[in-house]
Amino acid sequence: MNIENTQVQMRKGILEFCILHIISRGEVYASDMLVELTSAKIMVVEGTLYPLLTRLRKAGLVDYKWVESQSGPPRKYYTLTKDGEDFLGGLDQTWTELVNSTKKIIANKNTKKK
Length: 114
Fold this sequence. Notes:
The protein starts with a helix and ends in a 7-residue tail after the last helix. It has a three-stranded antiparallel sheet with strand order 1-3-2. Helix 1 (about 5-25) packs across helix 4 (about 80-105). The longest helix has 26 residues, at about 80-105. The chain is built from four helices and three strands. The protein has helices at about 5-25, 30-40, 45-60, 80-105, and strands spanning about 30, 60-70, 70-80. By secondary structure, it is α+β, with helices and mostly antiparallel strands.
């Protein structure tokens, strides 16, 4: 097995959760999301972000508005919808449960079966 493949899959699994959290802070431009995700080593491929944002918008979890830019073309700024806030609340609960469960399993790593 290749560890890099497993690491990529783990990151992909939490990407949507992280994107929703970034958007939950307020209006955010896609390139700012990309910078944060890249610096956190969650995502490094730009081509992954835009299709995911489109899917989240079609699901009614995020919305966007166009804002004129003084230094170029208009920019799309994303926000969470009410459904997105509710959805993220459910993901937060699931995340907490997963972290706690994982910690329990890892804490038992020195316990051997008899």
